[in-house]
Design a protein that fits this description.
two-stranded antiparallel sheet; mainly alpha; single chain
Length: about 100
């Protein structure tokens, strides 16, 4: 399809061009929907949910927690601004027993 000089087109020609573009978009949409139907898309949203992550940081006084993902939690940002370190708020977990070979 040749690219027309849009600035030189009349209003009638612009409207005709718009209709042609709309037709092309509708045809392409129909093609894509047919392809999705062939690969088994049923149009439903995925039922898979994100995994929950245990908290990595805890405020010793308030008990607020943060997983360490996303933006820094407000309470932690305030404490960091006050001069504390992130390591001061780490949640210490018991070490897991190593899984060795059973004899």
């Amino acid at each position: 399809m040749p690219i027309p000089q849009i600035k030189s087109l009349s209003v009638t020609e612009l409207l005709a061009l718009r209709e042609a573009v709309d037709r092309q978009l509708q045809e392409r949409r129909a093609e894509l929907q047919a392809q999705l139907a062939q690969i088994g898309s049923n149009g439903k949203a995925s039922t898979a949910k994100g995994t929950t992550v245990p908290p990595k940081y805890r405020h010793p006084k308030t008990g607020e927690t943060w997983t360490g993902r996303g933006g820094v939690a407000g309470w932690l940002a305030k404490e960091l601004a006050a001069g504390k370190k992130r390591d001061d708020f780490l949640i210490v977990k018991a070490a897991k027993k190593p899984r060795g070979k059973t004899k």
